[in-house]
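Entry for the shared binder. Reason: the reviewer on the internal report wants the predicted structure included alongside the sequence.
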Amino acid sequence: MSARFASAHASGTHWADITRTCLAELGPVTRENALGFVYVTDHLAGDLDSIVDQLRLSTGIESWIGTVGIAITGQAGDAPAEEYIDEPAISLMVGEFPADGFRLLEPGAGSSRLRALEPWRKARQPGIALVHADPRNPQLPELMRQLSDDAGLYLIGGLSSSRGALAQVAGQVGEHGLSGALLAGDVAVVTGHSQGCSPIGPAHTITKAEENIIMEIDGRPALDVFREEIGEVLARDMRKVAGFIFAALPIPGSDTGDYLVRNLAGIDTGKGWIAIAAEVSAGDAILFTRRDRNTALADLEHMLERLRQRIDRPVRGGLYVSCIARGPNLFGFDAAETRLIAKHLGQFPLTGFFANGEISHDRIYAYTGVLTLFL
């Protein structure tokens, strides 16, 4: 059988019935060199162990990675893509990779997992790690640094999102760690990410700050600069900025003007200070952004066109990780993002979930969409 990908997705009332429906839609799959992806809504977080056991038994595929999301997405066959939120649902994808083309990174902490993979890493030269992580884990920045800096891997994935258990799977089901799969160097992958917020003014310089509190920007009270940026209408009623205006931290050295969006955490009108959901220091750059449907869709289309120009062969499968604040919360309930992917790049097997933070390269983003294509 030639290298192929297949996907399936379904909703229902019981995990076993939903799993059987997905397996029937998936059809016969190759077992050799196969890696499975499984995403479940948080209604099924406690059943992920049973779901993975059933998938292994029915397909003969041992290696599965995935996690839980408040919402998930899937595209299969010629049917339009679907998103599932606030209902029990599963989205699957199975892909055939080159021989010895991946290794699982099981849930957990510590560098011992990387050391155990050292012989394979030297032989297969992995460049990509598909990862899922627990947002509650205080060791997450260090775990990401081990993979990105120490192992030289480009990370792609997201943080689990759930109103209950934050389960993830990579060989075994667990919580609290970072897990996924390392892809060998000969696995053809392209990836891109789309910002969900657009700048409303130029970059400024923080001139006085302590931890996450910004006292001065460009030598002036931070709140004065903020009010000028957002305009007179919003400045008259600061309650209106919640969920619409955000801080953004430009990434030094980025040749694409990339930035990390962070929430506004507080405003002190008496002192003229603002607080954001990130620690900053004097000398850091900052800008302010707005989030709205039209600008987010325009940026997603721009990202898809850039990817289309980089693709020199048919897309075999795709993985899409979007922010939980996007999807139905921003675009409505018509699977706008995933269907836009199909419009620009064509129909192909795709799975994914809506995350509590999106991972691209060595950073955790917010309000973005990260698309990975297997060629």
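Summary line for the report: The first helix runs from residue 15 to 26.
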